[in-house]
Amino acid sequence: MTSTPPPSTQAPSATPTAGGRDTEHLDVLIVGAGLSGIGAAWRLQDELPGKSYAVLEGRDDIGGTWDLFRYPGVRSDSDMFTLAYPFRPWRERKSMASGESIRHYISDTADEGGIRPHIRFGTKVVRSSWDSGTARWTVETRTATGEKTYTCSFLYMCSGYYNYDEGYQPEFPGRSDFAGQWVHPQFWPEDLDYAGKNVVVIGSGATAVTLIPAMAEKAGHVTMLQRSPSYLTVLPSTDPTADAMRKYLPAKLAHHLLRAQYVTLTQAFYQLARRRPERVKKVLRGLALKFLKDPSVVDEHFTPSYEPWDQRLCVVPEGDFFKAIRGGKASVVTDHIDRITPSGIRLRSGEEIDADVIVSATGLTLQPLGGMEVFVDGKQVDLGDTVAYRGLMLSGIPNLALCIGYVNASWTLRADLVSRYVPRLLKHMDRKGFAIATPRPDQKPDRPLLDLKSGYVQRSVAKFPKQGENDPWRLRQNFFLDAVGMNRGDLTRDMSFTRLIDLPATDNPSTGNTAKELAS
């Protein structure tokens, strides 16, 4: 059986502010109640049950990305043996799971761990300010009833890097002329009726590849319109080996073995793609050809100009996307848009595609730290000027961690390593009497934090922290190296610590207290 972490036994405290309002203080504030945030709360309770904490969530329910995206067919493109938490086995049969089942899994984890009472729903974090005199963050939030302020000793950002308020939408000429319905997958209308209609999906990424076979079941015809091809790979949605292991082994043991197996396979394939791209191209072409049968179609629509894993690889469970094309319910057009017309889309080639519904699966807008403004001792921080320490803290910013997953494997693999590192760091600080931990780089950045050539990454790359040349300032896309480095690595390397007794004795203007007085 899976052990449930003990609930936090430390009650939050109220700190008087200069304006006379009570500000809730906690040892740790976690921002985001999605896959990362719930995992972070579980690990914190398990490792440091005496710490008080809260989870601030801008939406009204648990799930994060999996609560936001509700378009037809929404699912994981990572296997659930690595996307699920290592401490709570995935028990459903499908390893490529639907968005709804993932959302329920996250919610059930929160309930099992007693985490839900710690979540402040409808609380959007807008600004966080660090004060070295008190060794505290002041976190300003916006709620439906007004503004609310929290303070904390450590701030853990689990907000991912998608902008939930807006997706990427190019301004196509003539869009306002379109007489049909225009939809962005991030804001899918519940009442959209596309049965028997002609649908055009603009885009060729994971969202488009997921939408098309799902919509093709009811639509008259679905056309995927892409500017250029993307690499696709076919994986089974269930695993007979996994079924057998879970039948005869304890759930937790089976989950750990399957997790290790899938991590090894995905990491090996990624390394093969980077070292032997031509071999992987042949494999991916062979998979497409197996379903589509026509080499000319594969050459025109499924042979990208870039190398495998220069952009994230799209997964097609059971080949459903290819099957929809082969069966005539869907088709692919590779061309550029000239303009949107009242009845559809005119292409540069002169061809016109009729459409009753246009789905603009044109990508996401990225933002670091959920769009939160960051100030350190009164000075605003440009996150683009910072360097990521072990891919989880930022140079010059004290007592703050952020959760960034892998681009070449499931998000949770790295997220869980980060959520285990944070309690490890806090334990070290408590043992040594440290109040502040600040990463101090000894090298200059040499590449972006998200090192992908995908358009959605390149559009926002300047807003994000950078990577340094060497460890611990390099964000490695290798779970096995990270598992050693983050679980056993030197916590003091390139890190500046300040003890409580060494903090300045000057009064803090916002609270009227020094760190020593607050601690006592």
From TrEMBL:
<dbReference type="InterPro" id="IPR036188">
    <property type="entry name" value="FAD/NAD-bd_sf"/>
</dbReference>
<dbReference type="GO" id="GO:0004499">
    <property type="term" value="F:N,N-dimethylaniline monooxygenase activity"/>
</dbReference>
<keyword id="KW-0285">Flavoprotein</keyword>
<dbReference type="GO" id="GO:0050661">
    <property type="term" value="F:NADP binding"/>
</dbReference>
<protein>
    <submittedName>
        <fullName>Cation diffusion facilitator CzcD-associated flavoprotein CzcO</fullName>
    </submittedName>
</protein>
<keyword id="KW-0560">Oxidoreductase</keyword>
<dbReference type="InterPro" id="IPR020946">
    <property type="entry name" value="Flavin_mOase-like"/>
</dbReference>
<keyword id="KW-0274">FAD</keyword>
<keyword id="KW-0503">Monooxygenase</keyword>
<feature type="region of interest" description="Disordered">
    <location>
        <begin position="1"/>
        <end position="22"/>
    </location>
</feature>
<keyword id="KW-0521">NADP</keyword>
<dbReference type="InterPro" id="IPR051820">
    <property type="entry name" value="FAD-binding_MO"/>
</dbReference>
<dbReference type="GO" id="GO:0050660">
    <property type="term" value="F:flavin adenine dinucleotide binding"/>
</dbReference>
<dbReference type="Pfam" id="PF00743">
    <property type="entry name" value="FMO-like"/>
</dbReference>
<comment type="similarity">
    <text>Belongs to the FAD-binding monooxygenase family.</text>
</comment>
